[in-house]
Design a protein that fits this description.
Structural class: mainly alpha
Number of domains: 2
Largest sheet: none
Number of strands: 0
Shape: globular
Number of helices: 18
Distance between the termini: 19 Å
Radius of gyration: 21 Å
Helix content: over 70%
Length: 411
């Protein structure tokens, strides 16, 4: 069975969704940047630390398992849903408990209210119907487009309206809550396949055992993504954190959109042809060449027109992000080209490879981030993440060669 046409259609639909939502996101960012100060963005960033860390700490790999598993989703639906519900409840409780400690650590008592609001998000998401993974498993990206666009629209609308009324970063959190609620409701309206309160201990063990490397990868990935933010918040404060986070979002946005679109489609496609080594290798090389070309074009545009992009999108108040953005644009390009190989590793069931390569990036960042920030401030943080991305590249290349070498030995 050929997957070329379905892959192209999938990339078109996922690309259309990402393109549409990112246009909306730019509009949303422009409005929020003019309604809120960098310090207020920093408060939201601090409040988000707890949620993001606990989410990856308790990541079970349910969706990855359901896509990888050759059996019907229905066979493991109840267990997947139960795991998600329990995880959501645990996250909610942990965030409520950790709130006062986070605000004390960052010396930001104003963030406590935001943290308590954020605690509702994982609780709501825990009840989402796992059957929605059918979109990805069966390459039904056209249907997913309309499903996701409604959710994103609700999130964006509520965020803008509430922030405009309150002039508070709480508006962003209310938007996330509204988006989570709409996704939970739609997941039961859209899919006739619904979970029931029944489970098998054997199936639960299977899901959790398969997902352990996804959990480990998630922890390493989170720390590698958030360690720079944490160090900046601790050493420099909320203002520099807000500036850095805004520069990071803009710098990686075009590259990450290209990479995420292609990776989301190629993961289930690679999974379906994982045992056909020559076919898999051919498709992987073609995809990598196209991806690299698009990423380099995006990087050059962002690097050359940095000043114009910042002044047009954010305004003169954010002019200090320009040198940071240039460095982070190179980081985004490297991550875009090489980070996309994760879909190949996951398709082959090599979650361990993804965890190891992310661990290398994390350890490199951990070594250089503090001295670099102390010496050069936010610029130092930008250089640190760039170095960490470069350190990961040899490991990725080695594992990619190993994947196809082992594939040849099997065939």
């Amino acid at each position: 069975m050929g997957y070329k046409k379905r892959t192209i259609k999938g990339i078109w639909w996922v690309g259309s969704f990402r393109g549409t939502t990112r246009i909306i996101a730019i509009f949303k960012t422009v409005l929020l940047a003019r309604l809120l100060s960098p310090a207020q963005f920093g408060l939201f960033g601090i409040a988000s630390f707890g949620l993001a860390f606990l989410e990856v700490l308790t990541e079970t790999g349910v969706n990855v398992f359901l896509v990888q598993e050759k059996s019907a989703i229905k066979e493991h639906l109840n267990e997947a849903w139960l795991i998600s519900v329990v995880r959501g409840l645990v996250l909610c409780i942990l965030i409520l408990i950790s709130g006062p400690f986070l605000t004390f650590f960052f010396n930001a008592p104003e963030a406590l209210y935001l943290i308590y609001l954020i605690a509702l998000i994982p609780l709501i998401k825990g009840f989402i119907n796992p059957a929605q993974v059918i979109f990805q498993k069966e390459l039904q990206f056209g249907k997913e487009f309309w499903f996701r666009i409604i959710i994103y629209g609700v999130d964006t609308l509520v965020s803008i309206v509430v922030t405009f009324i309150t002039r508070s970063p709480a508006g962003i959190v209310y938007g996330l809550i509204a988006g989570a609620l709409s996704e939970a409701v739609l997941s039961y309206i859209y899919f006739k396949l619904r979970p029931k309160i029944s489970f098998s201990k054997i199936k639960i063990r299977l899901i959790l055992n398969r997902g352990k490397w996804v959990t480990i990868f998630g922890i390493f990935h989170y720390l590698s993504q958030e360690l720079d933010n944490l160090v900046i918040a601790r050493l420099l404060g909320a203002g520099p954190l807000g500036i850095y986070q805004m520069a990071f979002k803009i710098s990686v946005l075009p590259v990450s959109e290209i990479t995420d679109v292609i990776s989301k489609v190629t993961f289930p496609v690679y999974t379906k042809i994982q045992n056909e080594n020559k076919r898999l290798k051919k498709n992987f090389i073609k995809t990598s060449v196209i991806l690299s070309f698009l990423v380099v074009l995006s990087f050059l545009f962002l690097f050359i027109f940095t000043k114009e992009i910042v002044t047009f999108i954010l305004g003169s108040a954010w002019i200090s992000t320009i040198p940071i953005l240039k460095i982070l644009a190179l980081y985004g390009a490297i991550r875009g080209i090489f980070g996309s190989v994760s879909s190949l590793f996951l398709a082959r069931g090599k979650q361990k490879y993804v965890a190891v390569m992310t661990f290398i990036r994390l350890m490199t960042l951990a070594i250089v981030i503090v001295p670099f920030v102390l010496r050069w401030g936010v610029i130092g943080a930008s250089v640190s993440v760039l170095i960490s991305a470069l350190a990961e590249v040899p490991v990725i290349i080695f594992y990619t060669i190993l994947i196809f070498k082992k594939g040849n030995e099997k065939s």
